[in-house]
Each structure stands twice: as C-alpha cells, then as structure tokens.
Amino acid sequence: MDTPEDAAALLGGDGPLAACLPGFAPREPQQRMAAAVARILEEGGTLVVEAGTGTGKTFAYLVPALLAGGKVIVSTGTRHLQDQLFHRDLPLVREALAVGADVALLKGRANYLCLHRLELALAEGGRQQARTLAAVSEWAGRTRTGDIAELVAIAEDAPVWPRVTSTADNCLGGDCPRYGDCFVAKARRRAQEAALVVVNHHLLLADMALKEEGFGELLPEARAFIIDEAHQLPETAAAFFGWGLSSRQLLNLARDAVVEHLAEAGDMQDLPEAAGGLETAVADLRLALGEAGQRRAWPGVRSGEGVGGALARVAERLRELAAWLEAAAPRGRGLENCWRRALLLGERLTAAAGEVPADQVAWVETYRRGFAIQFTPLDVAGQFAERRARLEGAWVFTSATLAVGESFRHFNERLGLEDAETLRLDSPFDYVRHALLYLPPAMPDPNSGEYSEAVLEEARRLVEASRGRAFLLFTSHRALRAAADALAGLLDYPLLVQGEAPRSELLRRFRELGNAVLLGTSSFWEGVDVRGEALSLVVIDRLPFASPSDPVLAARIERLRAEGGNPFMEYQLPAAVIALKQGVGRLIRDVDDRGVLAILDPRIMNRPYGRIFRASLPPMRLTRDASDVDAFFSREEEQTGERETAGA
Fold it and tell me: To which H or E segment does residue 142 belong?
C-alpha cells in the first residue's frame, strides 16, 4: 500500500472486496475512514473517528491494518465482538486481499483452560459439578486452543469455570507442572509472532495498568493500536487504574488453599479449618452489607451497623489462614502462591478500612451471594495518557458514538487525548426515507407520579401499531420490571424480558418469533444487531442520564463543582447523549431496514438541552402526531404485501 488513497481504492467498486464478497457495495464514508486510518498508521499520531451505523468501520480499519507492515493491536469492547472480528470479519478481508500475514486472537487468562487446575478439581472429587467437570476433561483432550468459548454446552458464567481457569493471583507461571502444555503461554507465543493481534479492552488495559496478563511484552513492539467500541474505554480504564477486593477473591483463596493442601500438605489438618473460618466470615460480611443489587459509597456503608465488625472478622480470619499458609508454603509452589495471595488481600483489606484518597472514590456493590469493594480514580485521563506515551505507535479510536453534536471534547478529555485528529462520518443509511422519530406531545414530567402509567400506555399503543417487532428500552431495572408486569396481560405478542433468560437466548428467540416485544435495560442499549423486519420499533422510556445517586458519578460531580466547572453540561449531558445514540443505533442496522424511534421523555423537546440530544440523532423525519406512526406502519405493511405478491 503506497498511499492512503490505495486503502480507499481497495474498498471501492473495482477493488478486491467487491470482487470477492457477495453483496459488498462501496460506501464513501468507509473509504474516507480507510484512507484516514492508513495515513495515521503511516505517519503516526492519534485519530478519533465516529463512524455512523452502516459505515463498515471494521473493514475500514482492517484493510490498512493488514497492509501496514509491523505489528498492529486491535482491541474490541467485549469477548463476543473479539470472537466475531477474528472468526468472521478478519478471514473475509484477508482472503479478499490475499494477505498472508499471521494473525492471532489473545484473551485474558481466565478465558483459557488451566490443565493444572483441572487436575486439582478432578482430584478433589465430590459430586458437585462432577458431570460438568467430566465434559471439560473430555474437551481438554481435543482442544487446540483451550479457549473456553469453544465449549458452548457450558454457560460462560457456569461455576465450574473459575475452578479450571487461572487468574493473575493463582497462576503458578513457569513453576506450574503443566507449563509446557499451557494454553495461555501458547496463545501468547502465537500473538508474539503475529502481525495483527485481536485483543479486548480488559486485556489491553490490564497490561497498560498492571502488566498482570503477561501481554505487556507485546505492547512496545506494536506499530499501531486500533481501539474499536472506544466509547467504552474510559469506564473500563477507571476499573483497571483503580483496585478492588471482592468476596470471590477471598472465597477462591479459601478454596484453592484447601485444594493445594490436599495435594501437598494433607497432614496439616488445621489449614482447611482456617479456610472454612474465612468463608464463614466472608458470608457474615455479605449479610451485614444488606440488600443485593445495591451500589453505594463505601465510607457510609462501612460505618453502618455491623459492617465494621464483620470487616474486622474477615481480616482476622484471613490473618489466621495466612499464618497456616506461611507454614505450609515450603511444601509446594501452589501453597506458596496461596500465601502470597493472602498477604496481598490482607493489604487490600487494611486499605479498605482506611481513608479514601482524595483522587479516588470508594464504593461497594452487593450481589445475591457476594460483594465487591472498589477504589476508582475520579479521572483516568492523566494515567491513560502517561501509559500511552510509553508506547511508540499510532492510535486509532473508533465507535459509532463518540461525538456530542459535532464535538469530540467529552471523549477526548476523558482519555487525555490532547492532540488527536478527529473525523465524524455520518451513516450512509437513508434515515429520512426509512425512519420516523416520534416524540409524543403530551407526556407528563418524568418525575411525576403519572409518568410510568403514561409510558405504558404509549408503549402499548405503539406496539399495537408496529404489530410487535419492538424493543422497549428502559433506563432502570425497576421501570423494566414494572412494565413487564403491567404489559404481560395487555399485549397479544410474545413478551421477552431481560433477566428471564441469557441475552443471547432472548435475541435468538426475538429473531425467530418475528413479532416479539423485548424489554431491556443497559445491556440491550448497545452491541445488539437485529436486522430486517423482526425489529421495526424502538421505544425509549427516558433520556439516559446516569443516576446522581451512583457513588462514582456523585463523586465526579462534586469534584467538577469544586473545580468551578458545570457538572451537568461538562459531564452528565454528554454522557447521556452518547448513551442515547447507542440505544437509537439498535433501530436501523441495514440498508433496507425501516422503523420508528419513539423517545417518550418530554424533556427532549421542552428543556433547553433537548436540542443537543436532537442534534446528535440521525436525520430522521420528526413527528408529534401518533397518526403518522400508524401511517408509517400501514405503508410498510402494504410494501411487504407487494414484495410477497411479486415473489409469488
């Protein structure tokens, strides 16, 4: 590839992708993005690209990345997208370009089977998870990669996986008896040799922050970093540039100590008793923390009734276990590793009981059976910029949702991207002809008692007009549950509700049914791709402002206010605009898709900031008349009938 324009030409009507891929059509925004990425990869620097839905951004960066020469790291937002890019998109582009460059997929160690821990789990015996362990053992004999995503028969959140995968805490490294067969080490070697490596944000940031995944040696070698779904990066970075302590870490330590004791120090009978004492103390602390599903400021919770004492008992039981592990450590590498983990967790418990640094916020989240205490930096821009500066190479950040109106200021400031070049590419889809934006004219204030009932009535009427085929997107689980209960007896269409089945299963059923209504919260606002007539209506109950009671947001607001800033305009509003753009992006996913977007929150029209939301939406025709919605779906039904008649 001699010039950036060459990358654009490869995606043109006479290029190899058009020749090799059925249905491929040149898109001017895609070619512009490819040329911009190619130039940055050649010259260096930082490029931030918002590529509207349908641009084809994946091909737009893969083409120049494969032809750039030198190592390129591509990072995606989730493991699912990582698999999709590596197994679907990348092979298509490589074949079309006839590029022989080696490529590799690399995930965090918890995604790979650990043969040593599998042997320990099998030796532990017992009936619990015996059948599942047998299935894992059978698969272990035939897998080449050890990637647990291969074993689709076992759910990705199944309790067996933590027993047979490793973490940075419990991995024995070169001292492991199965190190020669280690799937993590093999994956890293493949990544070391590859010209293009596909990772995810968690892995990338873990090594930028801590070098804890052993991927860090690849980073300085890279000529370029391409960050897809980059809008997720600031929040993910906040998690990795902070630290945490969870019930899972403590309970995993207790379990591993018992398993290693059986293998290496079976005569030390007091060690399992000490591990059991820690498990009991952790369970007591969980009870003291109160209701599940809460996310609260840690200092206030810590001072609550019973919590301080329960925390102190966990620390005491951990010290007792650490003492036994120190005595047992000479017996084997596994026990020594457990002892070091106990010391580290003890340090974190001490820190959790102390003062919160001024540049961090401490919070605790409770689950049905566990908890996590997190110390999160209020601002990651400085840390991210500092670590990025250590890595010589070009950087490309891209997503369908990075700008607020025409401005990238919010995203760039959150990551400290001071000298970034920006490019905003509109979607090539014909929103004016294929989509309708409906803003109901007489909705009550969202804070009033009548609002929920008005939302349900509008949603019911809209779903009847669309004949199902709808996503109802809510900003809170409470609103979702109330809507699910109320609509269950009112709709004549299948109702699918987030939480009643895994997300992938709900989406599969939604596509197959063809007339279903799916109710979802945050996890359905992004990363969901339903093409065709199965999804023709997206209803959004409120503008997606984050709850000001969230401890991290509350601390950021307080800090901005103390610095003389305007938290609403500088942080809350831009974040809500980007979240809304993600939800809106579910509607039109292909060139022939048609549909109605209904935003029920009246603030989008009657508050001054509403124009900022409206300016960030695709150029749809706007109506406040419900009869226009009925007419839209009536025309769609007529056109569907005409197509079916023509095809008969």
Answer: none
Number of Cβ atoms within 10 Å of the Cβ of 589: 18
What is the Cα–Cα distance from 401 to 229, expressed in whole angstroms?
A: 8
Q: Do strands 295-297 and 360-366 pair parallel, antiparallel, or not at all (unpaired)?
A: antiparallel
Tell me if 571 is assigned to some domain. Answer: yes
Backbone φ, ψ for residue 95 (5° rounding)? -65, -45
180, 212, 229 — which closes off a domain?
180
pLDDT per residue as tens digits for the range 287-335? 999 999 899 999 999 999 899 999 999 999 999 999 999 999 998 888 9
Q: What tens digit of pLDDT does each residue of 380-434 get?
A: 999 999 999 888 899 999 999 999 989 999 999 999 998 899 999 999 999 999 9
Torsion of CA 551, 555, 556, 560, to 10 degrees: 150
Q: Within this chain, do residues 44 and 146 fall inside the same structural domain, yes or no?
A: no
| Nearest in space to 471 (alpha carbons), one of 544, 402, 522 | 522
User: Does an H or E element contain 425, and which?
Assistant: strand 421-425
Q: Which residue has the tokens 């910029």?
A: 385
Q: C-alpha distances in angstroms, 459 versus 99, 238, 471, 543?
A: 50, 36, 10, 15
Could you tell me if 286 and 345 lie in one domain? Answer: yes
Q: Are 71 and 195 within 8 A, CB to CB?
A: yes
Q: What's the CATH number where 406 sits?
A: 3.40.50.300
In this prediction the pTM is 0.91
Cβ-contact 514, 508 below 8 angstroms: no
Residue span of the structural domain in which 34 resides: 4-101+195-240+380-425
